[in-house]
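Sample log: Enhanced entry protein.
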Amino acid sequence: MLTQPSPSLRRISLLLLSAALLGVPVSLRADDALPGVNDPAPVVEQGENDEGAVGKRGRITPFNGAALPEGEVPALQSPEEARKADAEKLTPSSGVNVLERMGAELPALPQEKPFAGKADDAYGAFQRGYYLTAMELALPRAQLGDAAAQTLVAEIFSQGLGVARNRKDAAFWYGQAANSGDPAAMFKYALLLMEGRDVPRDKKKSEELMKKAADLGNSSAQFNYGQLLVADMPGEKGLKAALPYYEKSAEQGIADAQYALSQIYLNVDGIDENKRVTARDWLLRAARAGFDTAQLDLAIWLVDGVGGDRNLDEGFKWMLRAARGGNVVAQNKLSHLYVNAIGTRPDPVEAAKWYVLSRRAGLKDLSLEDFYLGLPEDQQKAALSAANKYRAS
């Protein structure tokens, strides 16, 4: 249940990681140039026609004049023939299984071992949304010292599920569960001790609990203990000390840790080359998990050829995704990509729209301002209208 760091911790993590990388920025600022993005002349990805217009090539569609192979276009049918053909096709299907889709036989799965343990009725009720039932079942066990039940009671109080929210009672039961050895409760209670929220602040005990939870395999504790090491030991020493914890957390799917790995593997001296070549892969995992800063950085890496080959099309797609997610720097960079037709066709209205959105968020860019003011009035109005509609949606 307790796996993802809070947004506030994520913001802190980015600052810590950025500072620890000895001046290597986590993401580019608006005035950091992408090669070709801020050049006065348009960048031609694969070719330029005689009139100088930039065109994106390689798409075989009716819109760029490519013809379908002979015989690929099906013959037209009359409405009666089409209905008759559809009726013949609308027969129940037995379906296509995965093996048939793959076209290859797989070895038989090993026989599933029967579950010999005792089902946890309290957690079962919690998972089905029967929170009062879960509390009634868990509380007697919690009072007898059951660590899992204590954590469940703490979570119910913490979130106010079926009962009045009570953070002090939640803190009490997290503390009891942590003392009973539950790693998830150790992580949660360590955060409370670190913040001094509903319990007396105790930095030393917080760090001890965080490390213990991390060593017991809690993925969020692994990431956050890595953060503590980076904060206590700025620079490469702290990053290398935190690296094993980041790696374990990243392997369990924590996007913040995956992002941290990508930055460390690429930028820190002395990293094994077998790990260094995986930097972009870890960044891709974090981006796919929805981490917008990872999406922005991945777009820049793809456009600039950092950590692998350049891929302008994919770079544009990730920049667009980050921009749509509200990342202001990505909105600014996306405008540059539209202006210079990098990974996309030139589109002055879209370029101006994303510039307007990033400008409203406080990100200034003199080159884009000059571009915007140089547009015809009708395109400026269209961009403003598109930006207003985007904000309202």
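Observation: The chain has a mean pLDDT of 80.
Observation: The two ends are 32 Å apart (CA to CA).
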